[in-house]
Amino acid sequence: MYIRIRPDSETPIYTQLIYQIKKGILRKELLPGEGLPSVRSLAGDIGINMHTVNKAYKLLVEEGVLTQQKKGFIVNSDTKLEIQPPHLLLYKERLEALVIDTQIFGMSEEMVEQMKQEIEATLKKDDEK
Amino acid sequence: MYIRIRPDSETPIYTQLIYQIKKGILRKELLPGEGLPSVRSLAGDIGINMHTVNKAYKLLVEEGVLTQQKKGFIVNSDTKLEIQPPHLLLYKERLEALVIDTQIFGMSEEMVEQMKQEIEATLKKDDEK
DNA sequence: TTTTTGTTCTATTTGACATATAACAAAATT
DNA sequence: AATTTTGTTATATGTCAAATAGAACAAAAA
């Protein structure tokens, strides 16, 4: 699985990593129950620190996306993964900010819908594209 | 116009202020051409520092939401305010992150749509509600 | 037995955020 | 004309998150 990190981005590395992994799961490049690389190996591969990878993994566990076994992290196999209240609150805040900017800049509903569909296309298996 | 700041929020104060002002414009509590309170008076009113207000104002000018006269900041009167490329990029990144979380947590399209409409209701003039 | 795993701890560096204070020129007010 | 208000600029300080570095540990896997 490909992971690309932009060190100079405003977005923290651990946040970038979190979304790269979520992307991998949605694209089925990471399957339920599949193990993730160890914090040390992944850190070494993409050239970042071990603790940064560990932070991303632990936050993903906290969200329920990953689970933790005695040894190592794996993709959660639960069919129904529901968002927890504190994360739902953050989700709503992000949605509100996006809606506000959409209206402030007078972006049409079609324009947003098109962008959304372009994004969704990148989140499908290569097979289905 | 009401402005409420949560000092303990993860969101920086200047960012909170930016969205409060955008909200005020959408709700028509701030009209095109209308002047905003001076950085000192607003800072004093809501109990934050002058430079924090100034930072929010300047960023809003940079986005085209406000303009600056010889003296003071005013709401931009341009009918067509179009988003600039760098801001559009950030917008797309935020939209992507939201779409990813929507799918990862298996949220239905109806659920998102409902949340969106609840938000949009808060962005209308009180008259229209 | 050796290696690998995540965990924990201490330490350091960097930058953003926010505040505080002061001084300035230009504009508005009195 | 004098005073006040405006945004601007500069310096300084404190706090915190992010990221790195290195070391040590017990438990599990090889």
From TrEMBL, chains A, B:
Residues 11-78 form the HTH gntR-type domain. GO terms for molecular function: DNA binding; DNA-binding transcription factor activity. The keyword DNA-binding applies. Gene3D superfamilies: Winged helix-like DNA-binding domain superfamily/Winged helix DNA-binding domain. Keywords: DNA-binding, Transcription, Transcription regulation. SMART domains: HTH_GNTR. It comes from the Bacteria. The keyword Calcium does not apply. CDD domains: WHTH_GntR. This is Transcriptional regulator, GntR family. It comes from Isobaculum melis.
